[in-house]
Amino acid sequence: MSAGWFRRRFLPGEPLPAPRPPGPRASPVPYQRPRFLRGSCSSPGAAEASRRPDSRPVRSPARGRALPWNAGYAEIINAEKSEFNEDQAACGKLCIRRCEFGAEEEWLTLCPEEFLTGHYWALFDGHGGPAAAILAANTLHSCLRRQLEAVVEGLVATRPPMHLSGRCICPSDPQFVEEKGIKAEDLVIGALESAFQECDEVIGRELEASGQVGGCTALVAVSLQGKLYVANAGDSRAILVRRDEIRPLSSEFTPETERQRIQQLAFVYPELLAGEFTRLEFPRRLKGDDLGQKVLFRDHHMRGWSYKRVDKSDLKYPLIHGQGRQARLLGTLAVSRGLGDHQLRVLDTNIQLKPFLLSVPQVTVLDVDQLELQEDDVVVMATDGLWDVLSNEQVAWLVRSFLPGNQEDPHSLSAGWSSQVLEAGPDADTQHTGEGRRSHRGRAGVLR
Amino acid sequence: MSAGWFRRRFLPGEPLPAPRPPGPRASPVPYQRPRFLRGSCSSPGAAEASRRPDSRPVRSPARGRALPWNAGYAEIINAEKSEFNEDQAACGKLCIRRCEFGAEEEWLTLCPEEFLTGHYWALFDGHGGPAAAILAANTLHSCLRRQLEAVVEGLVATRPPMHLSGRCICPSDPQFVEEKGIKAEDLVIGALESAFQECDEVIGRELEASGQVGGCTALVAVSLQGKLYVANAGDSRAILVRRDEIRPLSSEFTPETERQRIQQLAFVYPELLAGEFTRLEFPRRLKGDDLGQKVLFRDHHMRGWSYKRVDKSDLKYPLIHGQGRQARLLGTLAVSRGLGDHQLRVLDTNIQLKPFLLSVPQVTVLDVDQLELQEDDVVVMATDGLWDVLSNEQVAWLVRSFLPGNQEDPHSLSAGWSSQVLEAGPDADTQHTGEGRRSHRGRAGVLR
Fold first, then answer.
1. What ipTM was assigned to the predicted interfaces of this complex?
2. Chain B: closest CA distance from residue A191 (Å)
3. Which end of chain A is more exposed for a tag (fewer CB within 10 A), N or C?
């Protein structure tokens, strides 16, 4: 992506790119549930709860189907909100092949044998339709595999070489790499960052070709070479639950948490707001009676607050509006990072959301060996549907309560999760507002 | 500042602002040392050290002159590097007046009486001449006082009101403010942010008028209403030294720590590099032999590393180059935040550094009451000259070693500081490179 591309793509008045020749229209992305749910069941613990009138269908993997690391999985479809579950998930073994160098110092795929193996778990929280999440679940792991294969020589070196070929052009090259502190894990982080972007481009092309729309957040965990990488773009969350510790493995990216980045872009490119929005933040949307008053505000460069005298342009709809779960970007979207949404516009306008969205994840690295993880340490990954109704502490309590005595059963986490979340969900849910209740949905991958 | 202003100011091809009518040329900013050094002395402890051939002059306040909170101060002028000391300092009482509302709901300065008092300590590390640091030392506290006076009604309320006048236009206004979590300390943070920007504009105007150049970093501590605020723009550092704890109160802003922000701006506005620099980071500057090779790199969106095939444009000089103390922005500047530098250009080019520099500080807040600070807890503020040769732990050890038994003497910190830093400096200094030695200079304000 270049600045020129950004300007042509998003800014009015820039010369338009040459139109693509019309190709055959691709068929729509077919709706599906995660592959590992084939032959799935409602888990036994959930049976009683599911007879209650307010219960929602819960699915988890069939008893005989073990997920990597005996991970558990349960999903609750919110039938009130949409006909289809917009969320998706994927997991599996990650097989990275090594290709040997030929005499020309170019890749020769003479030896595409499995070389490094890891595991991959992913959750995609869809919005505006299920298509983006389905594409992400079908594609992101392949993008990641390709990105890792492209740097695999660096991954297995003691320290990544300056030149991927291993050739040392300048005698002090290894010293330069060491001074920058570049380690193999930085290549995995880079591969995750690139894979998310590549997948985002694939989704953009596929949805445009099939005439579909939508976007999704993405939360991915990858185990490789003794490390666990958690990459997050959106408002899902992963935590590590240990006997005496709850460790956050991700941060949420929402219009509120990324306010300064978003306001900064609107400052640099005011055209993106088309005169319809104000980039300033106020405690509430201003109205005529506020004109001429000095009110609390903050702009892109401010972490603190100040007062400004209200003029007419401050009465426009705010770029970021609402509080907590209700916070929206351009009145439309509750997340600020994710995949897809290439066609998303503010209702009844030509104002695009995509320029404000990042597909790049933030990546956290856990050194599994160094941490001396125990049998009952569990990583919990879930979309906002779960975290809106249960705190980290409540989830940790649930995990700790259904785990003991069930470690040997590969299905234990799915079963425990299904029944407990279903039980806890509606109760916890009532603590929220009416809107909160209606949009409740939960999805949880639990790794052990 | 608006985006239009930014584009007119920094981007080629944009319509130029109307030229200002030539005014009378202001006289140059007169050189001076901090006011509180009048009648200053070399402290007794430093006498022996100063007889050594490699010693440098040390100044600290005169014995009879107590600084707020009995703060100590010592400065070492690096005579090898420049004739004048480019660094500055300021401290004093901060008197914030309250102005009463009239019937028109406008400020009436009928009652400009002192209302809130606080204290202020500041260090300015100058470069390219002493003028910017002198102006900052003379100006920033006034900017801060003005900014605080403009919001004083909000400062003294239980919670800042939505409208500064206190008028409640919408019955749920207090609730909106509460939901955003806006507290009085956010107004002080906002005032510090605005004061730094205002001071930067003053410096820009004054230096342009007097035909001088230069810039400086700024590290400010303010005590107000039971809180200590530390605002930092640059690579100075403040720490709190307690009996059992060393707590960092600031982060350093350098081309390395702000790499992604700086690369992002170059991505958005490639014109700023005038085709002379590459925004990409490589472990070292590339050369002809690297052409066609795949080498380690990262771009603005990456925290990890990847490999790219080198093309000709990658051989340009890097936007950020060098490592650690040698890291430079556009080959010129070692800091990425500060005041001044409005005229600074890359040598023999028209490429400006100012668009890449931020004058906004990062602000840390300490709740002094809640922390239950003890008599021997000390805040140490110093420029990079000190931190380049002494670690946080070494400085804490020094403070803890010269403090006991001297608490009652207001001069104890200045004296202890002068002698100990002078003793420790040259030894520690020898751990650094030749360039490191030559540019060594230290400045330390110690609050107790």
1. 0.88
2. 7
3. N
